[in-house]
Amino acid sequence: MTLCGVLNVDKPMGVTSREVVNQVVRLVRPAKVGHAGTLDPLATGVLVVCVGHATRLVTLAQEGRKRYLGRFLLGQTSDTDDNTGNIAEEGDWKGVTQDHIASLLPEFTGCVHQVPPQFSAIHVQGQRAYDLARRGETVELASRPVEIFSIRITQFCPPEFELEIDCGSGTYVRSIGRDLGSRLGCGAIMTQLRRLGVGPFDVTDAVAPDRITAATINDQLQPALKIVSHLRQRLLTPEDVIAIRRGQSIIAGSRSNNGFPVSSHETADLRTALVGPDGLLIGIGEVDPDAHRLCPKIVFPD
Is the torsion defined by CA of 47, 59, 152, 163 positive or negative? Predict the structure, then answer.
């Protein structure tokens, strides 16, 4: 049986995302495995691991909003922006209050420009920034637009504080702590990070890697359809399925299959999850509004 679906893994501290993926690879060979959004070894929490044909949806899985709980230490800076790097004492934090931190948080919400950490996976002239930084090279990283929906301070026990962050893809929580520390005038580094959720995948439903075995993995795999729950859906007839698998477009627009209504102009996002009569994801289509057709873009094999 070919496995296809997604694992919601609770990554522990001290292991890399790649190590978690490699564990899954050993269980599902020859099926492909990929993850949506790397977590640093310091970080714990939700790691979305796609298996089989669902690996073709990794980019879509990365679009999901991320929820984090980060812990920070005032009065220090480091070259990694967390406590794993070369730490330097910065400034006096004793005058910082919870209200002071809270008053600055609106500056970090909305669509903001953020400079990634020196030690990050950003590509610089074909190389990862962290590879250059490890060789002692100074990396000038350009700021990038990221979307941060909300930040709130959940604990303040000086010199430590904790933030709960709801943000879009590409946001570095380490950078938030670094920039907030700079605004406070004393510096700050991240000491802990837990990813609470990615899109529809929540840490309360995540499974520890040591519980994923050959005997349990089939039950732990969630349907690939959950990855694209943020997209509109189109329930296909058997005839639609045949056409889609042949690479042919089908009529878009308002129709109902087995009571499932679909509108071609529900949202600005023209991508559509194509769902078979059995409720399983067939692939991803995109509406051509001019031709009023739904064209297949990703199609899973039968």
Answer: positive
pLDDT at 255 (0 to 100): 44
pLDDT reported for residue 89: 87
Q: How many residues does the chain have?
A: 302
pLDDT at 134 over 80: no
Catalytic positions are 40
DSSP H helices, 85-159, are: 98-104, 129-134
181 and 108 in contact (C-beta within 8 Å)? Answer: no
SS3 state at 56? helix
Domain with CATH 2.30.130.10 in the chain: 231-299
Give the homologous superfamily in CATH for domain 231-299. Answer: PUA domain (2.30.130.10)
Give the phi and the psi of residue 152 in degrees, each rounded to 5. Answer: -140, 145
Task: Name the token pair of 8.
Answer: 């919601």
pLDDT at 151 exceeding the cut of 80: yes
For 204-234, letters b (16+ CB in 10 Å) and e give: eebeebeebeeeebeeebbebbbbbebbbeb
Strand partners, 128: 123
Q: Using CA atoms, how far apart are residues 190 and 175, in angstroms rounded to an integer? A: 9
